[in-house]
Specification:
single chain, alpha/beta, Rossmann fold, DNA polymerase, domain 1, 2 domains
């Protein structure tokens, strides 16, 4: 098979921290092109099970071919990972041994020039992982008010110059000039100093992509469902690339790992709080220098792991 179009991040760390039982059931909510999936299944015994989900049909089709050698204990589903409890219910699996989510966008999706993820090539404004459902970026930017677009760029893109950029986008849309990635790029560049163009474009495109795909909502929904779907002793691992995503994961793990809610004035715990998770590592696991040198996109990745108690 040809070289995979995407290099998976921290594969060894994921396998070493996630797999607690080689005969267990592992659900990967973001199979992508099968990088982590392949590594996980190579470690599983024949009685183990891998369940893979992905909203991107193109990635999933590639994964099916790549993972065909593991077909006996591999089940793939075209669905957003926020719906993983429904998938488990359909398979009559109440709980799994491990949950893994690799949040964000793949190198292939960024580099592909036909789906609107990158400002480096001109293509229709789409940005959806699954083009068969949901609202495209083109529709969002041409049908939304200033405030809605502005909040997306400010909150999800964390862009300080959001007002001027939003005004430029709305103005371009009113002229029928918000149909392609280069239209959006031109609007952003028209109000951005050339020294900051690349980083500003990255933030704007990222923020809009997050909104169009409901990425933060998906993450929060999946995390909330994870407790009931994870066996005691089983682990959940999440790789994120954006500070907003990592913050959500960090806060959720911390909240679920609380062992006492008593006031500091009370010398002895009386609340009888029972944690749902315990942190496997206090700090996020990051890629080492060798991996960053080979795959620069791994530099921003943070991997957090917790165990069900």
């Amino acid at each position: 098979m040809q070289q995979p179009p995407h290099i998976p991040i921290m594969v060894d760390a994921v396998v070493n921290h996630l797999l607690t039982d080689k005969n267990g059931i592992y659900l990967d909510g973001t199979t992508g092109f099968g990088g982590h999936a392949s590594a996980i299944m190579e470690k599983l015994n024949p009685t183990g099970t891998y369940i893979g989900l992905d909203a991107d049909p193109y990635a999933l089709e590639y994964a099916k071919k790549r993972l065909s050698v593991h077909a006996a204990f591999c089940a793939l589903h075209h669905v957003n990972y926020r719906y993983f409890p429904e998938v488990l219910a359909s398979m009559e699996i109440p709980q799994v041994t491990g949950l893994f989510f690799d949040i964000g966008i793949s190198s292939y999706q960024i580099d592909s020039g036909d789906r609107g993820f990158s400002f480096q090539s001109d293509s229709p404004l789409d940005m959806r992982f699954d083009t068969s459902s949901g609202e495209s970026t083109r529709h969002f930017l041409n049908s939304s008010e200033f405030k809605e677009i502005g909040m997306v760029i400010r909150n999800y893109g964390e862009e300080r110059n959001w007002k001027r950029i939003t005004r430029a986008i709305v103005n371009a849309a009113s002229k029928g000039e918000m149909e392609t990635t280069f239209h959006l790029k031109a609007a952003v560049e028209s109000v951005t100093h050339q020294n900051f163009e690349t980083k500003t474009l990255a933030r704007v495109f990222q923020g809009i992509r997050i909104h169009v795909n409901g990425e933060l909502d998906s993450l929060e929904m999946a995390l909330e469902s994870s407790i009931d779907c994870l066996k005691p002793g089983g682990r959940i691992g999440v790789i994120s690339f954006h500070s907003l995503e990592d913050r959500i994961v960090k806060r959720f793990f911390k909240k679920q790992a609380i062992t006492c809610t008593c006031s500091r004035e009370i010398p002895v715990c009386v609340c009888d709080t029972k944690p749902n998770l315990k942190l496997v590592s206090r700090k996020a696991i990051v890629a080492d220098a060798e991996e960053v040198a080979i795959n620069p996109r791994s530099r921003s990745a943070k991997f957090r792991v917790a165990e069900r108690v």
